[in-house]
Amino acid sequence: MFTNINLLELLPQRPPFVMVDCLTDYNETQSSCSLTVRPDNVFCDDGRLASAGLIEHIAQTCAARLGYYNKYVVKTGIRLGFIGEVKDLDIVRLPREGETIETTVTVVQEIFDVTLVKAVVRVGEETIATTNLKIAQGEEAKEG
């Protein structure tokens, strides 16, 4: 169902800073995105996705969820989002080139324009990272 969605319509980011390949799941409280780590990824260093790239991937999974909600549920424009806090970040290992990571974000709480999420990053069945994020929504993104 989600494979036909152009992620660039859901995200304010543009290449080469897009850190999600596909929205794989969405519901009101949870969504998932995948990313295959490629050597040309701006956050790829020495054959692995750097921790900053992993955090950006998690944040963009949140952005894809909000973008999907804004575009398809409430039918408004895509809003900018900002990481307000990264808490309890636990990186077991960094993903290697060629691996596909899947991140699931679960909404813990939404207060006005601030969303608190718990994120789990997996390669297959292996959990490689977990964290809690606070994302603040800003104004509608400008086209172009």
What is the structure about, briefly put?
This protein is α+β, with helices and mostly antiparallel strands.
Describe the 3D structure:
A hairpin with a 2-residue loop joins strand 3 and strand 4 (48-49). The chain has one domain (7-139): Hotdog Thioesterase (Thiol Ester Dehydrase, Chain A). The mean pLDDT is 92. The protein starts with 21 loop residues before the first strand and ends with a strand. With 144 residues, the protein is of the alpha+beta class. The chain has one helix at residues 51-73, and strands at 22-26, 30-36, 44-45, 48-49, 79-91, 100-111, 114-123, 126-140. Helices cover 16% and strands 46% of the residues. It is globular, with a radius of gyration of 14 Å. The strands form 2 sheets. A 6-stranded antiparallel β-sheet has the order 1-2-6-7-8-5, covered by helices on one side. The chain has a two-stranded antiparallel sheet with strand order 3-4. The chain contains 1 helix and 8 strands; from the N terminus they run E-E-E-E-H-E-E-E-E.
Overall pLDDT = 92
Let me know the number of strands.
8
Q: What's the CATH class, please?
A: Alpha Beta
Shape: globular
What tags apply to this protein structure?
single chain; 144 residues; alpha+beta; Thiol Ester Dehydrase, Chain A; six-stranded antiparallel beta sheet; two-stranded antiparallel sheet; 1 helix; 8 strands; globular
SSE diagram, text form:
Blueprint: E1 22-26, E2 30-36, E3 44-45, E4 48-49, H1 51-73, E5 79-91, E6 100-111, E7 114-123, E8 126-140
Antiparallel strand pairs: 1-2, 2-6, 3-4, 5-8, 6-7, 7-8
